[in-house]
Amino acid sequence: SMARVLVATRLVASGTRYFAKYLSVKLTSIVRRRYMLTIPVALAGTGWYSAQAQEAVEATQTPSRNFAFEAHRCIQRGSLRQLKKLLQENQGRDFIDKFGRSPVMIAAMYHKVSMLRFLLTETDFGVNDVDTHGSSPLHYCFALRSSSQPAKVAVLLLSAGAKPLQEDDYGITPFHKAVAFGQHEIVRIMLKWGVDINTPTGSKHKASSTQDGKPLSESNSGDTALHIASRKGHEFMTAQLLELGADPTRVNIAGDSPLHDAVRMTHVGVTHTLINFGADPTIENKSALSATKMCNITDLQCARCLYQIYSKKSR
Q1: Higher pLDDT residue, 134 or 13?
Q2: What is the rounded distance in angstroms from the CA atom of residue 289 to the CA atom of residue 217?
Q3: Which residue, of 39, 86, 201, 305, has the greatest Cβ tally within 10 A?
Q4: What pTM did the predictor assign?
Q5: Annotated domain spans of the chain
């Protein structure tokens, strides 16, 4: 019985020691995360407070401020006064986060027009600065689906010198991104700004077949705005682009026309629109597949659509 008592005593002592260590670290974590307070380091000498917890507490005594996070939070909340105060009191600080995003990009993403106007006119943040993926503030106009209209943000950025055909690391321009998100008004604005409606994606990567050691995907390079609208199934956008002069016979690097993309994704309405505007279903891609052959494989309804429309046009 004495042995059992000794074993039980050791177990209790061991459990108490481990529990005290867990409690000290947990308490420090909670306090540091929620309140950013410090526990007196003198407690480290009481025996129950671990050295690991002491190091954590000492680290909280001189916390490093994340100025980028504070600026982004002001923008997200819509507090222009706090943003001005933060920038004025901390001139020379780094307000770019670890993803390379500047306050201008965050303001464009959340469609904060007044803040964006202030940042572009009274700070040194550039309108064509890029993040770690090569995206500019104009790319960020379409990052979030918001109830507010991003057209005002796009016009403000374009007026400040933003480039609608500035490609990111994947060869996508703000113009192509606007088409992908179905932003009809912004597409018209960019076309009035002089954008070529048949500009392909990935044009700056044509000279090399690789990017950062990785081969470029043929199926995603050389797409025009009409390719993107057809693939996404945007019927109104497809019709708008065709009315504004988009070429329905233009092919990408893989040899696919917009009609190939519409048939592949079984978008019957888009297929109908493309045929009515002169798309040729007999064009073959690099896999020797025409839209007619492809729709027989993918969707019977698209095949009927092609047959009915093209047979009427050929009479």
Answers
A1: 134
A2: 18
A3: 201
A4: 0.71
A5: 2-61, 64-195, 197-203+217-315
